Amino acid sequence: MKEKLLEEFSKVFGDNEGTKVYFAPGRVNLIGEHTDYNGGHVFPCALTVGTYGVARKRTDHKLNLYSMNFENLGVIESSLEDLVPHDEAGWTNYPKGVMWAFEKRGKKIDYGMDLLLYGTIPNGSGLSSSASLEVLTGSILRDMYGFDVSNEDLALIGQYSENNFNGCNCGIMDQFASAMGKKDNAIFLDTATLQFEYAPVVLEGAKIVVTNSNVKHSLVDSAYNERRSQCETALHELQEAEAKAGGREIKSLGDLTPDEFEARKDAIKDDVRKLRAKHAVYENQRTMDAVAALRAGDIEKFGKLMNASHVSLRDDYEVSCPEIDVLVEEAWHVDGVIGSRITGGGFGGCTVSIVKDEAIDTFKEKLAAAYSERCGKTCDFYVVEIGDGPVIL
Fold first, then answer.
1. For residue 344, what pLDDT is reported?
2. Which of 37, 76, 177, 187 is the most buried (most CB within 10 A)?
3. What are the φ and ψ backbone dihedral angles of 195, each rounded to 5 degrees?
4. What pLDDT is recorded for position 345?
5. Is the pTM of this model over 0.85?
């Protein structure tokens, strides 16, 4: 891969003198969806697919950006004086946003760069191609300019740029999973405090299979920001009611147990907001229970909690779509499937399933046939491996 990338860099930029090659992973979330901006727990892992970058520092302020995934766009030229979002800038808004966020932290970027990118994450699949690109850009800037920032900082900078430069009000999970990934481990992260621990993912005789619906989604343009706003309003209503009653302080929906939520939910004045908040609270509990089950070696219970997560995302949070529901429902009917659910922000993208080794071929055949018959579409399958965070190759 490294040789291929260097060869391509030479073709595009004339030679590859003074370059380095970098990689940052995508992620899949095993359970804990739409909890990260609600102060709850998440359980993602980094993947061995992600974004590669070949970078070289320039002696001027020019930015020459090229993606092998969008060859038809050619080299997109910009400069350090133009670190502002433009609709026509397309994908380059992501690396430029990270540069902008570094400068906001007082990390002055004095020289431009030539940058070639190649992503192995299917675009719009919900496996965090944008977070992977943000963490990659951050690790390039750290190395190239000698900035003293940790991997955790890279995650926070990536989230800040996506929130404030790209206009997607995402939580911290995607960037954190990419920046802090550890081979064969998922990350049990409390998004309220950023306290985390690695949990070995031991699936005796089973694998994680990601199924891409090939239904594209864009979080910025979707109802993602609307869901976040609904949860914030619901939280505010709960806080007001609790303050009037002289009750305890509720900092986030993740502070509440399901029982506590049920006792207080009538303070939320809108039925839709009530459902959104219910998902955030119950999904947080499911995530804690799922990690405990995994640690106890109870993979069957882990699978049941994955299934329950999908039902809640479909019915209470309403971020699924007909195609994804077909893939999940069909998966549930295949012998050897331990659990299956939508993963990522929603409105398309991928499902994540835990499938026994002997059932993987049957799983693929049955889902592909049913998806074609019921939706008239094709889906793609990836038997994924859990990888490390960003590296210099």
1. 85
2. 177
3. -75, 140
4. 82
5. yes
Both 116 and 239 in one domain: the answer is no
Tokens of 13: 């930029």
Give the separation between CA 345 and CA 23, rounded to whole angstroms: 23
- Please choose, from the candidates 385, 245, 363, 13, the residue with its C-alpha nearest in 3D space to the C-alpha of residue 260: 245
Query: Residue 69 in contact with residue 116, Cβ under 8 Å?
Result: no
The CATH number that applies at residue 145 is 3.30.230.10
Does the residue 391 lie in any domain?
A: no
Q: Would you tell me how many other CB atoms lie within 10 Å of the CB of residue 249?
A: 8
The answer to whether position 392 is within a domain reads no
Last residue of a domain, one of 200, 226, 247: 200
Residue 218 located in a structural domain: yes
Angle, vertex CA 229, rays to CA 166 and CA 28, nearest 5: 60
Residue 318 lies in domain: 206-384
Give whole-number Cα distances, 170 to 158, 243, 282, 369, 390, in Å: 10, 28, 20, 34, 20
- Select from 200, 231, 261 the last residue of a domain: 200
The pLDDT assigned to 16 comes to 97
Residue 312 CA to residue 284 CA, distance in Å, equals 12
Q: Is 213 in the same domain as 193?
A: no
Give yes or no: residues 192 and 226 share one domain. no
Q: What percent of the chain has pLDDT over 70?
A: 98
Domains of the chain: total: 2
Catalytic residue (choose from 36, 114, 174, 316): 174
CATH number of the domain encompassing residue 303: 3.30.70.890
For 382, the token pair is: 């990836």
pLDDT in tens, 366-386: 999 999 999 999 999 999 999
The residues, ordered by sequence, that sit 6+ positions from 113 with a Cβ below 8 Å of its Cβ are: 55, 56, 57, 58, 63, 64, 140, 144
The answer to the question of residue 357 being in a domain is: yes
Is residue 221 within 8 A of residue 233, CB to CB? The reply is no
- Extract the runs of DSSP E, i.e. beta strands, from 92-235: 113-119, 185-190, 195-200, 206-212
| Residue 259 annotated to the active site | no
Residue 224's pLDDT band, with cuts at 50, 70 and 90, is confident
**101 with 249, same domain?**
no
The answer to whether residues 49 and 121 touch, using CB atoms and an 8 Å cutoff, is: yes
pLDDT tens, position by position, 171-203: 899 999 999 999 999 999 999 999 999 999 988
Q: In angstroms, what CA-CA distances link 160 with 117, 123, 134, 188, 303?
A: 22, 21, 10, 21, 33
